[in-house]
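Work through this:
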Amino acid sequence: MKKLAVFDFDSTLMDGETIDFFAQELGFKDKVVAITKRAMAGELDFYASLVERVSLLKGLPHSKVEEICQNLPMMNGASEVVAGLKARGYTVVCFSGGFRDATQPACATLGIDADFSNFLHAEEGILTGAVGGEMMYSNAKGDMITRLQSLLGIDRANTLVVGDGANDLSMFAHADTRVAFCAKPILKEAATHCIDVKDLKEILKIV
């Protein structure tokens, strides 16, 4: 029986928000954190908030982005939950409204099968403040999960999703096992399971 597990990245597989680490480098972390918090609570349109936050990164060297992304803190239990799910026959995928600079190295280290995220645009090694990619809209994760389920021949009964914020709601709509991980209230309401401790190994008790 084929099975699919889809994880959010920021504040789920990784302990923090990637864009907050970037903003800290530029000295306006508090401003970006405030926008991120409202977006994850469902108070702001995800696309608009993403574009606004990335515009603030204009001028950051891409080399600094890569350096930060190589040193992001993984969530407690991240490697164990990926290994445990793969041992149980799951294909494990990461969807992120964040950035490929962060998801690609982390997912390679964790042994995740594929990652889908956004790209920070740079010219001559400097961020322009523009963003593009597969995960820019509030319904992007839902759209992508149904395409993956169709491609892999996996139904919602054999799909596990894990996330923490409002932009995970669209993928929650297409899975029978829905884990809200240290999540905002709006996502907990849509979940079948809630984990309120920072330990992803708790998911292995559910599956």
In short: The chain has a mean pLDDT of 95.
